[in-house]
């Protein structure tokens, strides 16, 4: 019994140390994130953004939009993208073997004509059945291909067909800010070594959308979506900003990522076997350039450039989280040579070890902690005073870290500004500690088992119509 | 029990207090920040509604409105100056700029900008530079050029923007001399050069003569500002020993347009040079009509490396009937040249550029 008690004590100590370290690092990140944000605002002034208009020929950006059975939203999405405030753009819609009327709808709405379209195909993809160009808008290209089984394959087909120096890969349901491209292109114009730019992705659930544009930002009424808003704020405005301050961005969200086309091709494009294709590509870019000693910058724009829908039902969320988990473990395994390796700079010695330790081990340790706690209760070994304090401290730190993210979000975006929203966000940060966090950790464990047994598919997410 | 074993009571108490303190502090910070922002917004809107009509009248020459602006309370000086100057980012009407400058002068905004230029805070220096540029305050050209060597990258960028806005011919040489200064943002260097257009050309050509090491940058600069006057120099640069210089020279020739000698050089380069040079030579021939030799040479390169082939095809598309005939000869083939030819003929039919 004494040995068991000592083991229990040791484990408690480990969990406490882990928890304290995580919170300390979150707090330590906040000044870096704040300074980065402040500098970004000072430099990316209205005058700086007007630079695009001063250029005789701004860089051509190809927007790649993979579409699979999107007949309900495709026309609105294409119209919104064609109306972006950036002239030098082309839109490459990749119809990834849709079985609905996606292609017919595009054909009839935009006057598509089959076009002989010659281009080199440096990236291998499923067979391309045809290429269409719009008579009404020459900037619209539609690539019709057989389904390659994943979004990556469609994105690669789009990158092949793209003629822009930069490619923006987005999801079919991503809503872009009108000035998203003119903001995101700036790092490429500032620094010739820029290979990619990630953007802050905001959550569209609850917002009012008209003609593919956000007309009113509203906090969703669904609590699952609210928890995810708090999560996204912490992820985008604490961790990624801090990483960006050190040129050590480990992931560019699939919802908005602008890449130098040549760089993507140099690393072989999206890996169709990767589950977390966005993190996989970002880390391969980091590895490629750092291994060669070539200067490369992956920039991050803290302004909301794209809006995406998050799951607001348990089944969709579970499937997404299990997939994210499998993707994370796969990419960490594939890039294990970078972890702790000083050759890769800050991303090798800080970012990836952080991700491996906290995101990789976190859910397992947390669930183990709950099991041990239950065991201690059953055996009558739990110190309730200590337990209560730990819960209190955990909730307080969680709320405080969320408030840091809210503060940064206020500075960057001025979203959710009324008092009710603030109260709801803080409430979400507190309530998430009682159930949401635990279930997420559990899904993390399920995802780990799936990763180890090779099970688990892509899953599906119930899409909701936008509120107008 | 665990607690007593490890004797962590003191530490736990400290952590609890830290957590409470941190959460309370952050809650206070967020609330205060939001209140301050709200108050600032109200103030800004109030100032905007009060002064925007006055500014509009002053810009139309109303002396009374101008007096109101000049004698506005000093606490309103900076927001009013912002209201006055910021529209110049999009509206570069010379009359509006001149009127705004006069009003800003009377409001002592320029003195404030001078003070800001000497500020130890880089964002103030950058703000002053942007304002001086937008107002086209040519008396400050020297100071703005000096800021190109500022220790802070944000200030250097603002100085380049200011020089582009200032449009003072006296600053052209400073811009050209810094074409290869990689500490300055590449896009802004291009924008500053583009702002002056052909006015930069003589200086680019002069500097290129004394600085052959950076010839590639000068050739690239002529892509933005070159005219027919640059042809002779560019012809010479197409024979440079460095392929990147030859490629840039052909790219610039594509912009300024070919003459017979340039076309001859491009055809020769297509026949025997490196891939990037061949690609740019093919591009330079775009629109060069009625030259059967050029058409034949371009057609030969439809099955060259992709970078060359696609440019050769685009140039053939631009060559009217002769180009269409050459493309037509390939159109029935099932290989890449055939597909390229069909694409270009289709583009020509659809009147795509």
How would you characterize this protein structure?
The complex is a heterodimer of chains A (468) and B (353). In chain A, 53% of the residues lie in helices and 15% in strands. Chain A has 16 helices and twelve strands. In chain A, the strands form two sheets. A ten-stranded mixed beta sheet of chain A has the order 3-4-5-2-1-6-11-8-12-7, with helices on both faces. Chain A starts with a helix and ends in a 15-residue tail after the last helix. With 353 residues, chain B is mainly alpha-helical. In chain B, 73% of the residues lie in helices and 0% in strands. Chain B contains 21 helices and no strands. The mean pLDDT of chain B is 90. Chains A and B meet through helix 1, helix 2, helix 8 and helix 14 of A and helix 1, helix 2, helix 7, helix 9 and helix 11 of B.
The number of helical elements of chain B comes to 21
Distance between the termini of chain A: 63 Å
**Structural class computed from helices and strand pairing of chain B:** mainly alpha
Q: Describe the biggest sheet of chain B?
A: none
Biggest sheet, spatial arrangement of strands of chain A: 3-4-5-2-1-6-11-8-12-7
Q: In whole angstroms, how far apart are the ends of chain B?
A: 80 Å
Assembly state: heterodimer
- Biggest interface pair, counts: A-B, 59 and 57 residues
User: Which spans of chain A have pLDDT < 50 for at least 5 consecutive residues?
Assistant: none
Per DSSP E runs of 2 or more residues, the count of β-strands of chain A stands at 12
Report the mean per-residue pLDDT of chain B as an integer: 90
Average pLDDT metric of chain A? 89
Percent helix of chain B, as a range, is over 70%
Whole-angstrom Rg of chain A: 23 Å
Number of helices in the DSSP assignment of chain A: 16
Shape of chain A: globular
Task: Give the overall shape of chain B, derived from the CA principal axes.
Answer: elongated
Percent range of helical residues of chain A: 40-55%
Proportion of strand residues of chain B = under 5%
């Amino acid at each position: 019994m004494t040995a068991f008690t000592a083991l229990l004590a040791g484990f408690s100590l480990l969990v406490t140390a882990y928890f304290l370290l995580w919170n300390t690092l979150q707090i330590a990140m906040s000044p870096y994130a704040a300074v980065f944000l402040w500098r970004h605002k000072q430099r990316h002034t209205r005058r700086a953004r007007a630079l695009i208009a001063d250029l005789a020929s701004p860089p051509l950006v190809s927007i790649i939009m993979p579409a699979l059975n999107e007949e309900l939203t495709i026309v609105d999405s294409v119209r919104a993208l064609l109306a972006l405030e950036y002239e030098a753009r082309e839109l490459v819609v990749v119809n990834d073997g849709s079985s609905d009327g996606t292609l017919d709808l595009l054909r009839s709405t935009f006057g598509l004509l089959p076009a002989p379209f010659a281009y080199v195909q440096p990236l291998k993809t499923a067979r391309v059945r045809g290429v269409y160009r719009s008579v009404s808008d020459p900037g619209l290209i539609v690539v019709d291909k057989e389904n390659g089984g994943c979004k990556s394959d469609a994105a690669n087909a789009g990158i092949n067909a793209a003629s822009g120096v930069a490619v923006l890969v987005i999801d079919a349901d991503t809503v872009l800010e009108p000035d998203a491209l003119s903001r995101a292109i700036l790092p490429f114009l500032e620094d010739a070594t820029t290979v990619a730019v990630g953007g802050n992705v905001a959550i569209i659930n609850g917002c009012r959308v008209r003609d593919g544009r956000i007309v009113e930002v509203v906090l969703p009424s669904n609590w699952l979506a609210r928890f995810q808003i708090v999560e996204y704020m912490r992820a985008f405005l604490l961790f990624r900003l801090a990483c960006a301050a050190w040129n050590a961005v480990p992931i560019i969200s699939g919802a908005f990522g602008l890449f130098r086309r040549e760089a993507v091709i140099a690393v072989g494009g999206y890996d169709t076997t990767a589950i977390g294709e966005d993190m996989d590509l970002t880390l391969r870019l980091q590895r490629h350039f750092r291994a060669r000693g070539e200067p490369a910058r992956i920039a991050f724009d803290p302004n909301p450039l794209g809006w995406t829908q998050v799951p607001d039902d348990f089944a969709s969320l579970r499937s997404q989280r299990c997939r994210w988990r499998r993707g994370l473990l796969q990419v960490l395994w594939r890039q294990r040579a970078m972890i702790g390796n000083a050759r890769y700079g800050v991303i090798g010695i800080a970012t990836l070890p952080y991700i491996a330790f906290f995101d990789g081990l976190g859910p397992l340790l947390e669930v183990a902690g709950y099991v041990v706690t239950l065991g201690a209760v059953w055996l009558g070994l739990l110190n309730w005073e200590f337990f209560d304090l730990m819960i209190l401290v955990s909730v307080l730190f969680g709320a405080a870290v969320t408030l840091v993210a809210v503060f940064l979000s206020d500075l960057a975006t001025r979203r959710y500004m009324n008092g009710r929203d603030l109260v709801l966000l803080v409430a979400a940060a507190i309530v998430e500690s009682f159930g949401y966090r635990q279930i997420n950790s559990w899904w993390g464990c399920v995802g780990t088992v799936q990763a180890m047994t090779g099970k688990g598919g892509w899953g599906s997410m119930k899409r909701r119509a936008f509120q107008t | 029990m665990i607690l007593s074993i490890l004797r962590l009571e003191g530490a736990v108490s400290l952590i609890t207090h830290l957590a409470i303190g941190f959460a309370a502090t952050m809650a206070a910070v967020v609330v205060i920040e939001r209140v301050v922002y709200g108050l600032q917004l109200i103030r800004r809107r109030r100032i905007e509604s009060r002064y925007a009509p006055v500014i509009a009248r002053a810009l139309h020459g109303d002396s009374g409105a101008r007096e109101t602006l000049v004698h506005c309370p000093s606490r309103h000086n900076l927001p009013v100056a912002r209201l006055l100057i910021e529209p110049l980012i999009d509206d570069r009407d010379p009359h509006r700029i001149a009127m705004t400058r006069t009003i800003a002068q009377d409001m002592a905004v320029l003195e404030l900008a001078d003070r800001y230029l000497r500020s130890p805070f880089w964002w103030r220096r950058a703000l002053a530079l942007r304002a001086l540029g937008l107002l086209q305050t040519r008396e400050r050209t020297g100071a703005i050029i000096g800021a190109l060597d500022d220790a802070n990258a944000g200030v250097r960028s603002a100085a380049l923007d200011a020089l582009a806005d200032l449009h003072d011919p006296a600053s052209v040489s400073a811009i050209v001399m810094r074409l290869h200064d990689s500490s300055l943002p590449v896009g802004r260097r291009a924008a500053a050069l583009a702002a002056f257009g052909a006015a930069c050309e003589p200086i680019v050509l002069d500097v290129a003569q004394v600085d052959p090491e950076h010839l590639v940058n000068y050739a690239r600069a002529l892509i933005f500002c070159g005219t027919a006057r640059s042809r002779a120099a560019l012809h010479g640069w197409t024979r440079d020993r460095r392929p990147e210089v030859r490629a840039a020279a052909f790219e610039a020739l594509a912009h300024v347009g070919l003459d017979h000698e340039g076309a001859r050089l491009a055809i020769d380069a297509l026949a025997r040079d490196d891939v990037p040079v061949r690609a740019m030579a093919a591009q330079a021939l775009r629109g060069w009509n009625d030259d059967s030799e050029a058409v034949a040479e371009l057609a030969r390169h439809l099955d060259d490396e992709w970078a060359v082939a696609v440019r050769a095809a685009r140039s053939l598309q631009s060559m009217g009937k002769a180009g269409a005939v050459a493309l037509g000869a390939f159109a029935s083939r099932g290989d890449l040249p055939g597909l390229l030819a069909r694409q270009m003929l289709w583009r020509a039919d659809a009147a795509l550029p």
